[in-house]
Design goal:
Layout (H helix, E strand, L loop, with lengths): L14 H10 L1 E2 L4 H17 L5 E6 L2 E7 L5 H17 L3 H10 L17 E6 L3 E9 L3 H17 L4
Parallel strand pairs: 1-4
Antiparallel strand pairs: 2-3, 2-5, 4-5
Length: 162
């Protein structure tokens, strides 16, 4: 479902691929138990790969999961806050928003103290409902943050998100 996920040699996803991911990585439902399961999946994979990342999942405005792995800092929390703000404002992945600006030769011009159109935050989309929250990773280059999130969302769906 997500070719190139977790593969640093894969080409960076283009806008069409990012849009496809958003169409396909939709959940049948999402609650606080799901947030725990998805967050735990991301942390487990990050630990296996020895990745220094911070993971944050929001259900609406409620912080439902948060974990900071060794090698991270409070700066990662700030990046999470700003990337997730982009998802909440545009209802699209932070990487997709940034890529759309770059494709038009424009600089993302929203207040950088509040918004970061960099990869790593993805909307939690429930089929028939829309965006119900965000899942965000910070600590890697932006495309790798994005890939970790989308790879784990694809695994979560494959494992039978309820």
């Amino acid at each position: 479902m997500n070719p190139g996920a977790g593969n640093p040699d894969a080409a960076n996803p283009d806008i069409a691929e990012l849009e496809r991911q958003q169409r396909e990585l939709q959940l049948p439902s999402f609650d606080l138990d799901d947030a725990w399961r998805l967050g735990s999946l991301i942390v487990t994979l990050a630990r296996e790969r020895k990745l220094a990342v911070t993971v944050d999942i929001r259900h609406g405005e409620q912080q439902a999961f948060h974990a900071a792995l060794p090698g991270t800092s409070p700066d990662n929390d700030d990046w999470i806050r700003r990337k997730a703000a982009v998802v909440r404002r545009f209802n699209e992945a932070s990487y997709l928003v940034g890529e759309r600006y770059r494709a038009k030769g424009r600089v993302f011009d929203l207040d950088p103290s509040r918004y970061a159109a960099h990869g790593g935050s993805f909307p939690l989309l429930v089929r028939g409902t829309g965006v119900v929250g965000t899942v965000t990773v910070s600590g890697l280059p932006q495309v790798e943050d994005h890939r970790l999130v989308t790879e784990c969302l694809a695994r979560f769906l494959a494992e039978g998100a309820e």
